[in-house]
Write a structure and sequence with these properties.
5 helices; four-stranded antiparallel sheet; alpha/beta
Amino acid sequence: MKKALLISGGRQVSKELIEKYLDRFIIVADGGARLLMKYDLGANLLLGDLDSIGEEALTYIREHKIEVKKFPAKKDFTDTELALSYLVDEGYKDIVILGALGTRLDHEFANLLNLKKLYNKKVKAKIEDDYNEVIYVEEGTYGFVKTNKKYFSLINAGDRMNFTTKGLYYEVENLEINSENPSRGVSNEMVGDSATIKINSGSAFIIQSRD
């Protein structure tokens, strides 16, 4: 399975987190290049309109001979979505996205919805930073092992969602989340070394977090 790491231009993450994924094809969306320069890391490709990268980071990219695909600033997609489309077209089926969360709520929300788009294209994908890890899921059973992100939240991604949990502090059976109780699935916690969440119907974002 072809695996990729996408570094976007949102809130910066630690070098230790990036180093978990250095064995992947690495693509950088525009301003994410500043993170490469900060940690003295390489990448396979820089993609975007280059409006937020800065001259110093662009010089770093050129000196390290990283391939650049430049797009017009006036375009229909964010740099992150362009990078994801490139990866899908190239056949990548496992994508980790860093730097997709941050101060721009509009970009953050769009990036979360990109997880649904990738799911529909049968691509395994997650958004991660040093405090959160997010996946989009539909009907099925999902297993988790203990990490430093001990809190689990399920956010309904449609009209209504029904789920069952095992191995979490609040174990539930066929619990329905809808517009009347949207926070009902927020802030659960793993009690052992593993847990399962079964989506019986509907769709959700599963978010693992730490303080």
